[in-house]
Amino acid sequence: MPEPVIVLTGGTGHLGTQLARRLKDQGARLAVSYLIPEEAEAFEAAVDLDEDRLMLRRVDSTSPEQVAEFFADVAETFGGFNGVASLVGVWAGGRDIVDEDELRLDRMLDINLRSAFYAVRAAIPHLSKQAWGRIVLIGSTAATDTPIGQAAFNISKAGVQALGTSAAAELADRGITVNVVTPSIIDTPATRAALPFSDYVDWPEPDEIASVVAYLLSEDSGVVTGAVIPTRGKTL
């Protein structure tokens, strides 16, 4: 099989950077979308891929047109791609359902759910041409644990989980697997800043989550599809 080409949407954050490093070590070429230029610069420096092995593109992942154009450009540039990891996401909490407003709900649905839907929809025609592919979505254990005070986030991540299992069923006969990795929380500077009084000792680190995603993107993971895989660390 030729060297893999992997698409990472929203791939310049902490998780995406660690995943990119792992995929680089496996010989993959990468197409990575981002929104924040400073984040993209840090990603380039951290991953250090040759220009001919990295396509870095600013994309609004909540725009179906931009997402579709990005995937088409990836396919044209690299002659196709083998895997997709949808890493776009944001957390917001602190409000009960009666206090939640439509703008925050829409933001959660746009960034967490619709971005994943647009990525899956854009990827399917390209992956179907080769009858082989891997799709990994990032959900959250909040979809089933449903902690109080963050209903909008919980709902958006429940949608990601349903998207993953639905896509897996639809694509099973095309050789395309779809799985959802569901962290409880990821130990990043932003998470620590948002939860300053939490005990982060047992939080899983980005590279630990990345190792699971990298396996699900590999050829070896072909027997796994439609799975929802908790990556809680020691935070049961």
The separation of the N and C termini measures: 39 Å
Overall average pLDDT: 91
Q: Return the CATH topology.
A: Rossmann fold
Strand order of the largest sheet: 3-2-1-4-5-6-7
Largest sheet: 7 strands, parallel
Beta-strand percent range: 15-25%
Helical segment count: 8
Looking at how many chains there are and whether they match, the oligomeric state comes to single chain
Shape: globular
What's the helix-strand series? Answer: EHEHEHEHEHHEHHE
CATH C-level name: Alpha Beta
* Uncertain parts: none
Query: What is the tally of beta strands?
Result: 7
The helix content, as a percent range, equals 40-55%
CATH architecture: 3-Layer(aba) Sandwich
Which class of secondary structure composition applies to the elements?
alpha/beta
Quick summary:
This protein has eight helices and seven strands. It is an alpha/beta fold and 236 residues long. The chain has a single domain, classed as Rossmann fold, CATH 3.40.50.
Structure description:
The protein is 47% helix and 16% strand. With 236 residues, it is α/β, with parallel strands linked by helices. The chain has a single domain (5-231), classed as Rossmann fold, CATH 3.40.50. The chain has a 7-stranded parallel beta sheet, with helices on both faces. Helix 2 links the parallel strand 2 (29-34) and strand 3. The protein is globular. The relative contact order is 0.15.
Task: Write a concise keyword list for the protein shown above.
7-stranded parallel sheet, globular, single chain, Rossmann fold, about 15% strand, alpha/beta, about 240 residues
